[in-house]
Amino acid sequence: MSLVLDNISHTVNGESFLSNINLTLESGSFNVLLGRTLAGKTTLMRLIAGLDKSTEGKVILHGKDLTDVKIQERNVSMVYQQFVNYPNLTVRENIASPLRIAKVKGSEIAKRVQETAAILQIEPFLDRFPLELSGGQQQRTSMARALVKDASIILFDEPLVNLDYKLREELRSELRGLFKERNAIAIYATTEPHEAMALGGNTTLLHEGRVIQSGAATHIYRHPDTMEAASLYSEPTINLIKGRVTDSGVSLENRVHFAMRAELEGLPNGDYMFGVLPSHIGLAPNNDDDLELNMTVELAEISGSETYMHVHNAHFELIIQLNGIHDYHTEVPVKVYLPTHKLFVFDLTGKTIQVPSSIQKGAS
Amino acid sequence: MAEIRLKSLAHSYKSKPTSPDDYAIREMNHVWHQGGAYALLGPSGCGKSTLLNIISGLLAPSNGDVLFDGKKVNDIPPEERNIAQVFQFPVVYDSMTVFDNLAFPLRNMKISEDKVHSRVIEIAAVLELSDLLKNKAKNLTADEKQKVSMGRGLVRSDVSAILFDEPLTVIDPHLKWKLRRKLKQIHEQFNITMVYVTHDQLEASTFADKIAVMYGGQIVQFGTPRELFEKPNHAFVGYFIGSPGMNLIEVKKTKSGLKFNNTLVSLNPEMQVALDRVSTSNIKIGIRPEFVHVWDDKAEGAFECDVLHTEDLGTYKIITMKLDGEVLKVRIHEDRAVPTKKAYISFPEQWLKVYVDEYLVDIEEPEDEEKETV
Amino acid sequence: MQRKVRDNKAWFLVLPVFILVAFSAIVPIMTVVNYSVQDIFDQNTAYFVGAEWYREMLRNPALLDSLGRQFFFSFSVLAIEVPLGIAIALVMPTKGRMAAVSLILVAIPLLIPWNVVGTIWQIFSRADIGLFGYAVNALGIDYNYTSDPTAAWLTVLLMDVWHWTPLIALLCYSGLRAIPEAFYQAARIDRASKWAIFRHIQLPRLKSVLVIGVLLRFMDSFMIYTEPFVLTGGGPGNSTTFLSQALTQMAIGQFDIGPAAAFSLIYYLIVLLVCYAFFTAINQLDKAK
After folding, report:
1. What does the DSSP 8-state code read for residue C114?
2. Hey, of B44, B175, B240, B312, which one would you mutate to test binding to chain A, going by the most A CBs within 10 A of its CB?
3. Is B124 inside any structural domain?
4. Quick one: pLDDT at residue C4?
5. Which residues of A touch B314 (CB under 8 A)?
6. Would you say A266 and A309 are in contact if contact means Cβ atoms under 8 Å apart?
7. What CA–CA distance (Å, rounded) separates A364 from A355?
């Protein structure tokens, strides 16, 4: 039992929105579509829901071609970015609405509404109207409406993006729990790698209408196929620096040199792109082989418990992710330490050649 | 120049407030010093927008005073308060060019056209808008529009404070940090008091030297980003700052420490003494997920927990554990091994906080902080 | 990649509309075109006369007079109703009970049937028993719309202003309500004068509703018939005979079907042309910015 997207392409007025999408999503699975705005996430969801018809390819559910099946007969539900509820109906009636349309018995409706409301913790508000509720409660209501009917496919189109981050945290951790016992196929679109990883499940990385990579949540983080995948799946984005390997060692941007080390020894001489994750760079040396760089602070962004530092020198820019609070003014000189044993290596076409061994270990 | 002082300020939208719940702003005394970069941080509905409107003069407070440099301004309308405000959604005069937008406040003050010209050119350069001066404001991108609306405040030499109301809401995520940087640079360059209202801890901590955290119509802590993280003064601050927020567990006082269910958390003697004077039953312990110590194995004094699940976020992991019926979140670095089924944790004394009636029990010597008095 | 949809189903879906439009617009217009090129004596006797009626109509002084009157009237209507409507919208209260009361008061003239409007003003303006007519005469101004062409013309104008300014006012009122509060707050902080607020915030944001308002008012006033017909019957003399009334007289009063048909089509083209010119001008103005 599964949902198969068979070679789907979608073109509108000559502009390609999706090209050659091939995916298989199993029943009972939680799937994340990760991609920036305009990557094609919403387009793909609309095709699955039946709101649009793809120009090429098929949507096959449980072996049955859905291409010509109308949206009303597809048994899908969808949660949107905006809090979409019926303003003139109470929360109870909002949740009940899909069941009423499906002509479910009254007693059954009451029972299921109660159950779903309990799961989403909106029982106290059942008799209120959506606009009297906070944003988080409104979005819980629209989620309840999507969950109350036994849909075979449930689509979430960036449902948390309009909520405060604390509410996001809460709803996100609850959301995974909701799907443990369901046999539905959940598809969740997000722009944030962090959210994709927090939700876990299967992740499909979309970019400009193509599938870049697909796999278990942390698999892409630990084994990106390409430089594109590594940079789309890191937050803050992985730092990329051009470098050259010669007999005497490695030079970055022809300026910063360091001696060849065991991890990079297998590399033939030539030009490469080196990647280093923001969290791997520090303000103090961790290892003997850390490369000391003199940089200038552009901005220290502080996020409550972490600091993201944007630094630069004449040749490249780096983003550094630090635990705790590090308060820097702009344009201040700072020494940073780049661990040469934690470098990703990509060839100039963007294919991954090597991933640092310390990261791969994390998979255990 | 402006120091903004709130004196016994309170506000209710009801004409006859009866209970404290009727107040959007509960009585507060607060000072923003001249030239500081401040943030007003809190969840939606905490009263921060109300407070901002009171400061700008768009709303008259029902009790207390607003003082600018010691002068009461309650009855002075916004246009005479020498403040500028940047709103959530960019406000530009669509039909005018960028130049005319920036010149608008000056022209309204009947300043000579050549002075207007030089001032606009100067401010446009600071905001990196010089190339756009001839463009119609209508066709600008959201971040450019926000710069224009900020520029209308900066051109006025009489402006001594700029208020920001969630100014980055409509800005593209990847442009946000650039605008944050611009804001910070402008603050460093101009000697202007800036107050930035937001619900986002990243915006607040990046911009401000000191943050006022608002909750339930009150400022529950006024401190640096570091203080909010390391020493939250109120249980709400602990929860609200950091992701995930602080673990908070309700406990009961005993002679040998604090107890929840069958677990006893021992305290140092000073804390024990401090708690002896407490009569309320509302006591909580709090510890941040970052500061929970995870042992590799059973250890002396470590609590045994059940591991419920692990969120792998790549560079770190968040483990949800159950300790004697209470759920805790613990954050560990990606290089650390993840405990399976059972974990052994302890709470380093330095990071274990005690909250009585939601407020921190502070037993440390007070540092030489300026004590604000009104 | 692109694959054209070779499906003609869509045409079937719009077919009913075509049929409807054909019966409601195209067929009647073609009938008029047919009449306009014939000299019709009775049901069975008609001669093809080509463009003769058109030539005659364009030389007909009575018609040219009423065309001139019509333009003058329509532009006067716009010149008064648009600024007045905006002014009313600006002073209408926005909050509380007064907002609802003022909305109802302003909307009342719009709810009255057109012929009743004519009747009301006919009585209202009478010098002997009408409140307005009597009051004006009491002020020492000699006013009698049944005998004085200027007075009659002004009365028709006044009646139209009374009847239709509320439409502009309501359109502008809704346009003003759509301006976010932050714009006013920002303007106050920028120390903008009331005039500057109007000029730079309110007016630019009223543009789209004003375009609709002006178009509606132009077309409507250009085709005005009922109210002056009831009020003055087109008199005294021909002073308030507007195009549609002249046309009706010709077609129904004198049964000159051919010339009347030619005239209708000229009339129709003028309305289309003015609306098109107006619309294009506004769009060009928009692009220029």
Report:
1. H
2. B312
3. yes
4. 47
5. 193, 197, 218, 221, 234, 277, 279, 362
6. no
7. 16
* Average of per-residue pLDDT across B342-349: 92
Q: Which residues in chain B are closer than 8 Å to C200, comparing Cβ atoms?
A: 93, 95-96, 104
Please report the pLDDT score of residue C287 as a whole number.
Answer: 63
Which chains does chain A touch, 3 or more C-beta pairs < 8 A?
A: B, C
Q: What domain count does chain B have?
A: 2
For residues B302 and B294, give the distance between their C-alpha atoms in angstroms, rounded to a whole number.
9
Q: With contact defined as beta carbons under 8 Å apart, do A204 and A34 qualify?
A: yes
Which residues in chain C show pLDDT less than 50?
1-5, 289
Residue B195's nearest CA partner among B172, B222, B170, B218 is B222
The CA distance from C6 to the nearest CA of chain A, in Å, is 12
Peptide bond into B244 cis (omega under 30): yes
Burial-class residue A141 by CB neighbours within 10 Å (0-12, 13-18, 19+).
Answer: buried
Residue B365 lies in a domain: no
* Chain A residue closest in CA terms to C5: A55
Q: Are residues B248 and B208 in the same domain?
A: no
* Structural domains in chain C, sorted by start: 52-288 (1.10.3720.10)
Quick check: B108 and C205 CB within 8 A? no
Residue C20: is it exposed, middle or buried by C-beta count within 10 angstroms (0-12/13-18/19+)?
Answer: exposed
Domain coverage including residue B263: 243-359
In sequence order, what are the residues at sequence separation of 6 or more whose Cβ sits closer than 8 angstroms to the Cβ of residue C285? Answer: none
The domain boundary, picked from B196, B230, B264, lies at B230
Q: Are A191 and A158 in contact (CB under 8 A)?
A: yes
**Same domain for B109 and B25:** yes
Residues of C with CB under 8 A from a CB of B: 180, 182-183, 185-186, 188-193, 196, 200-201, 204-205, 289
B350 close to A (CB below 8 A): no
Which string of DSSP letters, residue by residue, matches C17-46? HHHHHIIIIIHHHHHHHHHHTEEEEETTEE
pLDDT for B179 equals 87
Residue B133 near residue B165 (C-beta atoms within 8 A): no
Query: A77 and A154 in contact (C-beta within 8 Å)?
Result: yes
pLDDT tens, residue by residue, B76-130 = 888 888 888 898 888 999 889 999 999 999 999 899 999 999 999 999 998 899 9
Residue B374 within a domain = no
Q: Which chains touch B (3 or more CB pairs under 8 A)?
A: A, C
- A177 touches C at CB < 8 Å: no
Q: pLDDT confidence of B214, banded at 50, 70, 90? A: very high
- Among all residues of chain B, which has the CA nearest to that of A305? B242
Distance CA B254, CA B272 (A): 9
According to DSSP, the β-strands at A153-157 and A185-190 are: parallel
Q: Does A321 touch chain B (CB under 8 A)?
A: yes
At B116, which CATH number? 3.40.50.300
Distance from CA of C7 to the nearest CA of A (A): 13
Q: What is the complex's ipTM, to 2 decimals?
A: 0.83
Same domain assignment for residues B268 and B351? yes
- Say if residue B206 is in the same domain as residue B254: no
Specify whether the CB–CB gap between B280 and B267 falls below 8 A.
no
Mean pLDDT, each 10-residue run in order, chain A (364 residues): 89 88 90 89 91 89 84 86 89 92 89 89 90 85 89 90 81 80 88 88 92 90 92 90 89 85 83 93 86 91 89 92 88 92 91 85 50
Domains and CATH numbers, chain A: 2-232 (3.40.50.300), 239-361 (no CATH)
* Type of residue found at B366: P
Residues B221 and B337 in one domain: no
Q: How far is B110 from chain C (nearest CA, A)?
A: 11
Contact (CB, 8 A) for A161 and A171: no
